[in-house]
From TrEMBL:
It is an enzyme of class 3 (hydrolase). Residues 1-27 form the signal peptide. Its EC number is 3.2.1.45. Residues 99-453 form the Glycosyl hydrolase family 30 TIM-barrel domain. SUPFAM superfamilies: (Trans)glycosidases. Belongs to the glycosyl hydrolase 30 family. This is glucosylceramidase. It catalyses: a beta-D-glucosyl-(1<->1')-N-acylsphing-4-enine + H2O = an N-acylsphing-4-enine + D-glucose. One of its GO terms (molecular function) is signaling receptor binding. Pfam families: Glyco_hydro_30, Glyco_hydro_30C. Residues 456-521 form the Glycosyl hydrolase family 30 beta sandwich domain. One of its GO terms (biological process) is alcohol metabolic process. Keywords: Hydrolase, Lipid metabolism, Signal.
Length: 525
């Protein structure tokens, strides 16, 4: 991941000022949930068809004001509204994108920190993400070889100029170097109650494929056809090796953050033109022959670059035909705070308008990524949970088919990360204790989407209105493959609100919601 990656210094300054004036740097309270052997803190209560039959409504609430954390209640539709100033009106006759899912990345750092827990608590932690009592992730991201959240730099073939990749091996993924990452992936796939869509992303090729014989400092590939061909073959070898271990992938991103990072950790820099030509001439044809069902995502980088990258790559029909989707990172998260200036989500709406057959997917996000100002974990910070909620909801309302968090777990210092690029995560592990981990508000905010908006759900029309005194509630609505409606509503305000949700023909859900809260409602159409 990259720190603030802005195109001009002017906009950087504006955004930095806006960022500093937000509550990031102020004191905060710790709203984390501690999980230990004595208090394993599992258990989101499940709902049943009975709860929602007829006029029944199931609600789940997470609130800063009280103990509610994905807390279930059963209410019902009413004939008239509660007179609240904020109104949400659903229109299932209007439909948008189909959902792929929500999840996080299975990194070396996650595997290494999870391994420090005793076996029972390891299972508890993973159940929090993947079981029916957890937040039921449906997406997983896997780095292809090392990234900054590894203990160092390694690749799957260190033999110089081995263009045929005869020495390619994923053996390292079953060693302590990676925290036995392959084993973590297999455990997750065995445990999950849902089908998980896995996607893979490379940070860097073997150093010998680069012009500088190094994976740091934003290198480029050696400008030789054998090297391009070999780098494309490396992808096929990866998927073949994982397939032989029983792990199948849904998709791949061409390159993690091709626009570059600070230079302190692995990357392979590509201009949009270089990515276009690599896909068109090498990676597209290569994967079409070995992995024809695999989806290919371009970009996998900040929203701010969307216009140039999509027009360069997708306006070329020979590159376009290999591209299924567009991966997006949130590390202009700063821009989420000045949406009036940067309109990050409008960029997504524009892309959907121009290329409606390409899906958009949030492929990476985390808090605590800005050096000095805002780096590393803030245990239990509510604000960071709300930022997840805002970004996920805004992405969904701008055509994203899903959202992927970065490391599923880290230690209390936000690592391990060999380049000291430490960040926050929804679950932080006390690696000394052996049986203690903490769930941050981010975990619950993510859960309000991931647990209920099942893959195959379709976003529906939602009109949210307020008045001069009361801004509209932030809301998104979906129709699940089982025919239920799911509506997520967020209140980021410092005050509680009385509002209502109308499903014409059925009635009103009347709600009195506390400040700083998020709710998910489930009911029949
Ligand atoms: C690339 O780096 C490796 C490791 O430092 C070294 O063994 C090798 O000789 C280098 N290759 C070239 C072409 O400089």
């Amino acid at each position: 991941m990259a720190p603030v990656n802005m195109t001009t210094s002017v906009s950087s300054v504006i955004l930095l000022v806006a960022f500093l004036s937000t509550p990031h740097t102020s004191a905060y309270s710790d709203y984390s949930t501690k999980c230990s052997q004595d208090s394993p803190c599992m258990g989101v209560q499940s709902w049943s068809k009975d709860d929602i039959s007829g006029n029944g409504v199931v609600s789940y609430t997470t609130s800063q004001e009280n103990e509610d954390r994905l807390t279930k209640r059963v209410t019902s539709f009413e004939e008239s509204d509660n007179g609240g100033w904020q109104k949400i009106k659903l229109d299932p006759s209007v439909t948008y994108q189909k959902i792929q899912g929500f999840g996080g990345a299975l990194t070396d750092a996650a595997a290494i920190t999870i391994n420090t827990l005793n076996p029972e608590m390891q299972t508890k932690l993973l159940e929090n993400y993947y079981s029916a009592e957890g937040i039921e992730y449906t997406v997983g991201r896997v780095p292809i070889a090392s990234c900054d959240f590894s203990t160092g730099v390694y690749s799957y073939d260190e033999t110089e100029n081995d263009f045929e990749l005869n020495d390619f091996s994923i053996a390292v993924d079953s060693t302590e170097i990676t925290g036995n990452k392959l084993n973590l992936i297999k455990t997750v796939l065995e445990m999950t109650v849902n089908k998980i869509s896995l996607f893979a992303s490379p940070w860097a090729p073997p150093a010998w494929m680069t012009q500088t014989n190094s994976t740091v400092g934003n290198p480029s590939l050696r400008d030789e056809p054998e090297v391009y061909q070999s780098w494309a073959l490396y992808f096929s070898k990866f998927f073949e090796a994982y397939r032989n271990e029983g792990v199948d992938f849904w998709a791949v991103t061409v390159q993690n953050e091709p626009a570059g990072n600070t230079g302190a950790w692995q990357d392979l820099k590509m201009s949009p033109e270089q990515q276009r030509d690599f896909v068109k001439n090498y990676l597209g044809p290569q994967l079409e022959s070995t992995d024809p069902d695999l989806k290919i995502m371009m970009h996998d980088d900040q929203r701010v670059h969307l216009p140039t990258w999509t027009s360069t790559i997708l306006d070329d029909k020979d590159a376009n035909k290999y591209i299924d989707g567009i991966g997006l990172h949130w590390y202009s998260e700063v821009e989420d705070y000045v949406t009036w200036a940067t309109k990050p989500f409008d960029k997504m709406n524009d892309v959907n308008g121009k290329y409606p057959d390409k899906f958009m997917m949030g492929t990476e996000a985390c808090n605590g990524f800005i050096p000095i100002i805002d780096q590393g974990p803030k245990l239990g910070d509510w604000n960071r949970g709300e930022r997840y909620g805002f970004d996920i909801m805004s992405d969904l309302n701008a055509w994203a088919v899903g959202w992927t968090d970065w490391n599923i777990a880290l230690d209390l210092s936000g690592g391990p990360n060999w380049a000291k690029n430490v960040v926050d995560a929804p679950i932080l592990i006390d690696t000394e204790a052996g049986d203690v981990f903490y769930k941050n508000p981010m975990f619950y905010y993510l859960g309000h989407f991931s647990k209920f908006i099942k893959p195959g759900s379709v976003r529906i029309g939602v009109e949210s209105t307020g008045n001069l005194i009361s801004a509209p509630m932030e809301a998104a609505g979906f129709l699940t493959p089982d025919g239920e409606m799911v509506v997520v509503v967020m209140n980021r305000d410092i005050a509680g609100h009385k509002y209502n949700i109308e499903l014409p023909g059925k009635g009103f859900i009347n709600v009195d919601v506390p400040k700083h809260s998020i709710q998910t409602f489930i009911f029949e159409q």
